[in-house]
Amino acid sequence: MIIGVIRLDIVYQMNLINNNMNELQIVSYDQAKRLKDAGFDWPTTHFYKENNEKLKSIWDSLLHGSYPQNWNVLFWPECISAPTTDLALKWMRDVKGLLCHPAADSSGKWTGWHYSNDMWHHTDDFNSYEDAESELLDELLKLIEQ
Questions:
Q1: DSSP SS3 for 43
Q2: Would you kindly state where each structural domain of the chain is located, as residue ranges?
Q3: Integer angstrom CA distances of residue 12 from 6, 7, 17, 19, 77
Q4: Which residue, 92, 86, 83, 94, is CA-closest to 114?
Q5: What is the pTM of this model?
Q6: CA distance linking residue 110 with residue 20, whole number of Å
Q7: What pLDDT shows up at residue 64?
Q8: From CA 66, how far away is CA 72, in angstroms rounded?
Q9: DSSP 75-122
């Protein structure tokens, strides 16, 4: 009976890691590096290693435990926190004070909107919410890097 429980637990964890259809989008390696430079310090369940674009998760190594951590300030300077795009945008709103959100237009296209310099700006139109979110994050990173 215990073997069945362990096996189901392994299958459950692998589904969490590999089932991308039901998960939020993780930022790209480049976005993660730029967020680290911008001061992103919220705990995440995923991370990259410097000079390696392969995404890792807390389940890849039992050394790190199985809870979210701020990978940007741990003992390993080569680790880079990889938040979901949604969490990165929330950090932009809460910490950097930037108003931003993706929105759909009447044709079903998605656009990222942000407020700066006393006016609203928007990204190009995209077919998916996730693409608009990612482009919006890139625009906000450019804005705070200036």
A1: coil
A2: 84-146
A3: 10, 9, 9, 10, 31
A4: 92
A5: 0.78
A6: 21
A7: 52
A8: 17
A9: S-TTEEE--BHHHHHHHHHHTT--EEEEEE-TTS-EEEEEEETTEEEE
Cβ atoms 91, 98 nearer than 8 A: no
Q: Name the CATH code of domain 84-146 (choices 2.60.120, 3.30.160, 3.30.1380, 1.10.10).
A: 3.30.160
Q: HSE of 87 in the Cβ direction (CA atoms, 13 Å)?
A: 20
Per-residue model confidence (pLDDT) at position 79? 85
- 53: its two tokens: 């674009």
pLDDT, block means (10 residues), the chain with 146 residues: 40 44 82 96 88 73 63 78 94 95 90 89 91 96 94
Pairing of strands 99-104, 110-116: antiparallel
Separation of first and last alpha carbons in the chain = 59
**Between vectors from CA 107 to CA 101 and to CA 113, what angle results, nearest 5°?**
20
**Residue 145 CB burial class (10 angstroms; 0-12, 13-18, ≥19):** exposed
Both structure tokens of 1: 């009976």
All residues at 6 or more sequence positions from 75 whose CB lies less than 8 Å from its CB, including other chains: none
Of residues 42, 48, 41, 34, the one with CA closest to residue 144: 34
